[in-house]
Amino acid sequence: MDLVSFYSLNILVGAVLATVLGLFGAHVVARNKTIEVIFLGQSIQFGILLGVLLSGLLHLTHNDHGLHFEMLVSVFITVLIYSIYLWLSKNKKYVKTPLLVTIYSLLIGLSYVTVAASPLIESHMVKSFVGDIVTAARLELVIILFLSLSFLVFFLKFKRIITLQSFDLSMFGHLLTAKNRSIYVIFNIIILTLMIYSTHVFGLVFTICMMLFPITIIQFGKISLGLLYTMILILAPVSVLSGFLLNISYENLPTSGLVSVVYLGLLSLFVFLYNVLKGKKKVPSIKGHN
């Protein structure tokens, strides 16, 4: 338990971040942006690798933690690539999904080409994929905690507007009114910010799984949005803590992978038990006849 106490800040930050990712991720899926999330994740990872390569070519001093060069490059590359996608997708002649998949595949290829250019980058590719939550610097964790809590407050304050906008985008593909459009813009900025620092420190696996697992699993049960929020608020922190405890016993296994597996298991169990209990309530009582 000494290790749990030592990594208490890491666990707290991971729990808060997992919760916030799940809450926002539910609306990302509702807005038909699932593939875009995968696309953004790959853009961020490629940006990190390219930043590491460029920092080596420019002989820049590398610092594993903090606002360093490869993170800035990752932000620039992600915004640039996503802007190009938005510009191309505005033309109705180009179908969005094939365009996304094409650019996504290109980014995967470019990532491996970047790694091949310098074998030293391979370790960064692994880190950006499975995360480095255990060795994250304290300052880095404090910044992530502050941002995550700020985004959580924003979500709770504008939850109703966010939900209505998700409904409009899901049903009609666009907002029905220009009112509260600033909330829509801020929502998108928050998603991008969340994914950048989550992928950078906690890894792409953690980021995608925390965002998409809850909303995906509840499709197997008729669960309300309110119950989904409650499920995320309880199970996300439990999964992060469980992942850390398992990592203490199995040090060779990545924490993010363990957290993701536990989260999927708990979500599935929750939905299964919910369906069973709900099914029992619907069974009519059998009265005896004299």
Characterise the protein shown here:
The chain has helices at 2-6, 8-30, 34-57, 69-89, 96-117, 122-130, 138-157, 159-172, 181-201, 204-217, 225-249, 255-282. The protein is an all-alpha fold and 290 residues long. The longest helix is centred in the C-terminal third of the chain and has 28 residues, at 255-282. It is globular and about 65 Å long.
Secondary-structure-based class equals mainly alpha
State which percent range the strand residues make up.
under 5%
Distance between the termini: 63 Å
Task: Please give the share of residues in helix.
Answer: over 70%
Give the number of DSSP strands: 0
Q: Write down the Rg.
A: 21 Å
Principal-axis shape equals: globular
How many DSSP H or I helices?
A: 12
Largest sheet: none
Short description:
The protein is built from twelve helices and no strands. It is an all-alpha fold and 290 residues long.
